[in-house]
Specification:
The complex is a heterotetramer, with two copies of chain A (about 325 residues) and two copies of chain B (about 220 residues). Helices cover about 30% and strands about 25% of the residues of chain A. Chain A is an alpha/beta fold. In chain A, the strands form three sheets. In chain A, strands 1-2-4-3-5-6 form a six-stranded mixed sheet, with helices on both faces. In chain A, strands 9-8-7-12-10-11 form a six-stranded mixed sheet. In chain A, strands 13-14 form a two-stranded antiparallel sheet. With about 220 residues, chain B is mainly α. Chain B has ten helices and two strands. Chain B has a two-stranded antiparallel sheet. The longest helix of chain B is centred in the middle third of the chain and has 19 residues. The radius of gyration of chain B is 16 Å and the shape is globular. The N and C termini of chain B lie close together (about 10 Å). The N terminus of chain B is likely disordered. The chains are: A alpha/beta (about 325), B mainly alpha (about 220). Chains A and C meet through helix 1, helix 6, helix 7 and strand 14 of A and helix 1, helix 6, helix 7 and strand 14 of C. The complex binds adenosine-5'-diphosphate (2 copies) and magnesium ion (4 copies). One magnesium ion (MG) sits at the interface of chains A and B.
Chain lengths: ~325, ~220, ~325, ~220
C-alpha cells in the first residue's frame, strides 16, 4: 500500500486536524464524536444542513462546510457510515432554531445511522427532515432492493441547498428543493484502478492492465461489469448513454455537467472527458449552462471518473451561482 | 428427565459476559476474513468495524459487570451503535438493545429467556433494516438460528444441545447466502455479481451464535 | 498504460478543447500555434503576463489564465517546452501596450524557447522582461550547472504578479516583484509512483512497492535519491528540512504553506501532510498566514507531493488575497 | 592526387536533401531508443520531439527543394524550432539556421563548405545553450566531430574519408558522455545520478553525422 499516511487508524483524525488547521476561518472540527462544522455556527434564523458519510471521499463532505453550503459534516471511518452520535451532536451544534436538513446518500448504513440520529434529535424537539440522494444509474433499483446509490448529485445538492438556506428557505421548502435536485440528477462512474482502504492494506479488487470497471460506486466496491479498457471517448459514451436515457434528458434541456475524478485521475484527463461529454450533449441539443470539473467526490486514490448530469432551471442556476465559501468550493466571495 | 434438565439449565450473568468476550475474540480472529468477504461484495470494512466495536464493548464491559443481563446487553448495543458505524453498527446495536430490553432485570437466562432475547434482537434488526429472509443479509443467519433453537427446545433438547442446533442452522443460513442475489446493503448494488459470495454480516452473526454454543456448552446436563 | 485518453498524439489538443469549451467566459484557446489566453485580452493599460511549459502539469499553466493571474499560457507537448512561435503569437495577442512579463521555469528548454520568442517580440517593438523561477532545493545549483528547477513557487508567482498587474504595476515593478517572489520561495517534492508519458506508454522509472523517490521534479524524472517508503510525518520532515534550511526561514517569518499533489495523491493525504508541515512550522515560531492545498502543479498521474514555502510580507499577502478568476484558482469574484 | 581529389569532391543540393531524409529516417528508427535514453536522465521526450520535428521537416522539404542549400538548411532550422520544443528544438534549430547562413547561395558543398557549416552550427548551439565540452550534451558529440573532420581534411583525406572520421569521433564523444556528470539540461538536476547514462542529445547528433558519412560515401574518389 503506497500512501502518504502514518498509521491507518490515525488517517481520519489526522486528516481532520489538517483540515481544521488549514481553514480555521471557515470550519471547526469537533472530535469524539467527530464532526466538522461552520466556524460561525449556529447561523441564526437559517435552516442548518448536515451531511456525512464514510471518509475517503474528500473533499466531500468536510470540504463543503462553510458559508453557502453545509453547516456540518460527519465523517465516518474510511468508507464506513458515521455513527448516530456524530450526527446528533453535530445537529445540536448547528441547529439555529429553524430546523435541520439531513442530506443522506442512499446506503443502508448511512440511512440507518442518520435515522437513529434523527430520532434522538427529534426527541430533543429539533425539527429534522432527511432527503436521500440516489442518483447512480449504474444500479438497477427496484422496490425490493436497496435502490440506487447516492453519488455525484450529492455534491450539487449540497451546494444548491446550501445557497437556498442562506437565502432563507424554510425547512419544508428546502426539503422539497433537495428532492427536486435529486430527481433531476443522474450519475455513473468507472474505475481504471481499484483503491486501497488503509486498514485493509490491499486493493479492494484486482484489475488487469487492460481492464476497467464500469458502474462503480464510491466505496472501492466492484462495478456492474468489467470490460476491456477503451479510448476515453468510448468510455464517456458508455457513461453518458445510461445517464441520458434514464431521466431522460431531452433536446432543449439545460444541464450542469459535472465531470468528477475518483481521486487518482488528473485534470488533463478530465478535460478530455469533458470535451467528449460536452460534444455528445451538443449533438443532442442539450445545453450545458454550468459545469464542475475536478475531484469532488472521490474514492481514495482510485483512478477513474464519474459523470453527473443535473437538469437545471432558473432557480437552480440562480442558487448554483450564489456565493459559496468552503475549503473546496469557493466563488462570489 | 430431559425436561427436568431443561429447568435446571440456564446461563448466569458471568456466562453472558464470558460469551461477549468470546464473541469479541472471535471477531478479532476473523477480522481479516470478514474484511475479505466484505471486499468481494461490499466495501471491505465489516471486519474492521465489528472489531472496533467489540473492542469498545470490552472496554465498557467492566463498568456494567455487576448489573443485570438486560442492562449489560443494552449497554453493549449502545456501544456498538456509537462505535461500529456502517450498516453493522445500527443493526447489531439494535439487536443487542432489543435483546437487552427483553431480558431486563435478569441475572440469569433460561432457554426461554434466550429465545425471547434472540427473537427481540432479530425483530429489531428486521424493523431497522427492512430485510427479508433471502435478501443475503445477517437475517439469513439469525432467523434460521432462532427457528432451530425453538424447534430443538420444543423437541425437548437440552439448552446446550439447542444452542448447538441453533449455531448449525446459522452456519447453514450463512452458507446459504452464497448463491443469493443481494437485495439489501451494499452488495445489492452489484446485482447478479453478488452471487457466489458469502455475506459478511451473516458470517459475523454465525460467529456470535457459535460462540454462545461453545461457551455455554457446560450447560449440558450431568 | 492506464489513462482516460484517446490517441497519445491528441492528448494536448483535446485537453485544450475541453478547457476552452468548459470556460468560454474566462479563456480562449488558439491552435497552431497553441496558446490559452484571456477571453478579454488584450486588457488595456495592463502589463500582460505570459507563461508556459510542457503539458502534463495541469492546471498549470492554462488553468491559471484569467482575471488576476495570467494573460496567456503556452502549453508544449507533454513535458516538452513550448516553441518560440507559441510565445511570440501569444505575446502579440495579449500585449496591451504596457509590455509583457514572461514567467519562465528554469529548464534549459523553456529558457531557450522563451528567449527566442522574446527576440522575435522585441523585434516588433514589444517590451519583454523575463523572470526565471528556480525554487527547487532538491537540486544543488552552482554557477557551472543549469541551476535549480522551477516548481511550486511558479504557481504563487503567477497569482501574485497577476494581481499586481491588475493593480497597475508597470513592467519594471512587476519584474522586480516576480524576482522577489522567486527569492522568497523554496520547494521540494517526492514521488510514491512514477508517471507515464502518453507517447512513451510505460513509466519513466520503476519504483518498488516499498520505495519512494525524494527530490523529484515535475517531469517524471527520477529524483535525487531513492529510499524506503516512510510514514507521512517523516516524509514531510525530509522535505521541510532542506526547504527551511535553504532560505533560511526563521522564527517570526510569515509564510504561505503550499502542499501540492503531484496528480495522483488525493486530498485526504494532503491534509495529513499539511498537518505535519504546519506543526513543524509552529514549532519553529514560523507563522502560516496563508495556504494552498491541492493539485496545482502536477506530473500527470504521479502519486506524490511537493511542499512550497513562500516568505510573505504585507504586499505579498495583499496581492495573494486580491480577487482571482481563472479555471483553477478563484476567489473574491 | 588526393588534393585534386578533394577539389572534385563535393555534395550537391540533392545529396543534402538525401542526407536530411536519411537523418529523418534514422531519428524515426531510433525514436524509442532516444526516448529510453532521455527517460533515464531526462524526461523521456527527446525521441518523440526530434521525430515530430523531422517529420515536419520532410513535409516542408518539397517547397524548398529547388532553393539553394543555405535556404534549405535555414528552413529546416526554422521548422525544427517551431516543432521540436524542449531543449532540442532551439538547439538543433539554431544549428541548422546557422549552418544555413554559412552556406547561403550555394548549390553544392565542398569539404571546406561543410566544415564552415558545421562550425557555424556548433557555435550557434554553444551560444544558445552555453554548454562547455564535458557538460554531457550534444556539444560532446558535435565538437569532436568537427575537429576530426578538419584534421582528416588537413591530412589530405578525401571528403568521404573525413566524414567517416567525423562520424567516428562523434560516436566516441557520444559514448564519452556516459561517465560524465551532467552540467546542462535536465540531466544536470540528477547530479551524480546522471553518471552511467549516455546523453540523448549527443546520440541524436551522432546519428546525423553518421547519416552524412553514409549518404555522402559516394563522394569517395572513382
Ligand atoms: N438493510 C439491511 N438489513 C439487514 N442486514 C443488512 C442490511 N444492510 C446491510 N446488512 C448487513 O450488513 C452487512 C455489512 O455490514 P458493514 O460492512 O459493517 O456495513 P456497510 O455495508 O455499511 O459497510 C451485510 O453483510 C449485511 O449482512
Ligand atoms: N544548454 C544546453 N546546451 C547544449 N545541449 C543541451 C543543453 N540542454 C540540453 N541539451 C541537450 O538536449 C538534450 C535533451 O533534449 P530534449 O529532451 O529534446 O529537451 P528537454 O531536455 O527539454 O526535454 C540533452 O540530451 C542535451 O544533449
Ligand atoms: Mg462501510
Ligand atoms: Mg462494509
Ligand atoms: Mg522535455
Ligand atoms: Mg527530454
Amino acid at each position: 500500500m503506497k500512501k502518504l499516511i502514518n498509521k491507518p487508524e490515525d488517517v481520519v483524525r489526522e486528516e481532520l486536524e489538517g483540515l481544521a488547521w488549514a481553514h480555521p476561518d471557515l470550519v471547526k472540527v469537533h472530535f469524539d464524536p467527530n464532526y466538522v462544522y461552520r466556524a460561525d455556527a449556529p447561523v441564526n434564523g437559517k435552516v442548518a444542513i448536515v451531511s456525512g458519510g464514510g471518509s475517503g471521499h474528500e473533499p466531500m463532505h468536510g470540504g463543503f462546510v462553510g458559508k453557502g453550503m453545509l453547516d456540518a459534516a460527519c465523517p465516518g471511518a474510511v468508507f464506513t457510515s458515521p455513527t448516530p452520535d456524530q450526527m446528533y451532536e453535530a445537529t445540536k451544534a448547528v441547529h439555529a432554531g429553524a430546523g435541520v436538513l439531513y442530506i443522506v446518500k442512499n446506503y443502508s448504513g448511512d440511512i440507518m445511522n442518520f435515522e437513529m440520529a434523527a430520532d434522538l434529535a427529534r426527541a430533543d424537539g429539533i425539527p429534522i427532515e432527511s432527503v436521500v440522494i440516489d442518483d447512480d444509474v449504474a444500479v438497477e433499483g427496484s422496490l425490493y432492493t436497496q435502490g440506487r446509490r447516492g453519488v455525484g448529485t450529492t455534491v450539487l445538492a449540497e451546494k444548491i441547498c446550501g445557497a437556498a438556506a442562506e437565502q432563507g428557505y424554510n425547512l419544508k421548502r428546502l426539503t422539497d428543493l433537495c428532492k427536486r435536485v435529486n430527481d433531476n440528477g443522474r450519475s455513473m462512474g468507472m474505475a481504471l484502478t481499484p483503491c486501497t482502504v488503509p486498514h485493509v492494506g490491499r486493493p479492494t479488487f484486482e484489475l488487469g492492465e487492460d481492464e476497467m470497471e464500469i458502474g462503480i460506486g464510491i466505496h472501492g466496491e466492484p462495478g456492474r461489469q468489467r470490460t476491456k479498457l477503451r479510448p476515453a471517448d468510448e468510455i464517456v459514451e458508455l457513461l453518458m448513454e445510461p445517464i441520458l436515457a434514464d431521466l431522460p434528458f431531452k433536446a432543449g434541456d439545460r444541464v450542469l455537467l459535472f465531470v468528477n475524478s475518483m481521486g487518482g485521475t488528473p485534470l488533463i484527463e478530465l478535460y478530455i472527458l469533458y470535451r467528449k461529454a460536452y460534444s455528445i450533449l451538443e449533438g443532442r441539443g442539450i445545453q450545458v449552462v454550468r459545469n464542475l470539473i475536478g475531484p469532488y467526490i472521490t474514492s481514495l486514490e482510485m483512478a477513474g471518473t464519474s459523470i453527473t448530469l443535473l437538469r437545471m432551471d432558473d432557480e437552480l442556476i440562480h442558487l448554483w451561482d450564489a456565493p459559496v465559501l468552503t475549503p473546496a468550493l469557493r466563488w462570489g466571495i | 428427565m430431559e425436561k427436568a434438565g431443561v429447568e435446571t439449565m440456564s446461563v448466569h450473568r458471568d456466562e453472558v459476559l464470558a460469551w461477549i468476550r468470546a464473541v469479541a475474540a472471535a471477531i478479532e480472529q476473523n477480522r481479516d476474513y470478514l474484511i475479505q468477504l466484505d471486499a468481494a461484495i461490499g466495501d471491505a470494512d465489516h471486519g474492521a468495524n465489528m472489531d472496533r466495536g467489540f473492542k469498545a464493548v470490552l472496554a465498557r464491559l467492566g463498568s456494567v459487570a455487576d448489573k443485570d443481563i438486560g442492562t449489560i446487553l443494552k449497554t453493549i448495543g449502545m456501544t456498538l451503535v456509537s462505535t461500529v458505524g456502517g450498516a453493522g453498527g445500527p443493526l447489531y446495536g439494535t439487536f443487542f438493545m432489543q435483546a437487552g430490553m427483553a431480558t431486563a432485570g435478569k441475572l440469569e437466562l433460561t432457554p426461554a429467556d434466550w429465545v425471547s432475547a434472540l427473537e427481540a434482537g432479530l425483530q429489531g434488526v428486521i424493523n431497522r433494516g427492512k430485510a427479508q429472509p433471502g435478501d443475503k443479509t445477517m437475517v439469513d443467519a439469525l432467523m434460521p438460528a432462532l427457528q432451530a433453537l425453538k424447534e430443538a427446545l420444543g423437541h425437548g433438547a437440552c439448552f446446550a444441545e439447542a444452542l448447538t442446533r441453533s449455531a448449525e442452522a446459522a452456519e447453514r443460513g450463512m452458507r446459504g447466502t452464497i448463491p443469493l442475489v443481494a437485495k439489501k446493503g451494499r452488495a445489492s448494488y452489484l446485482g447478479e455479481r453478488s452471487v457466489g459470495h458469502q455475506d459478511p454480516g451473516a458470517t459475523s452473526s454465525f460467529l456470535m451464535l457459535k460462540a454462545a454454543a461453545e461457551i455455554w456448552a457446560n450447560a449440558r446436563p450431568g
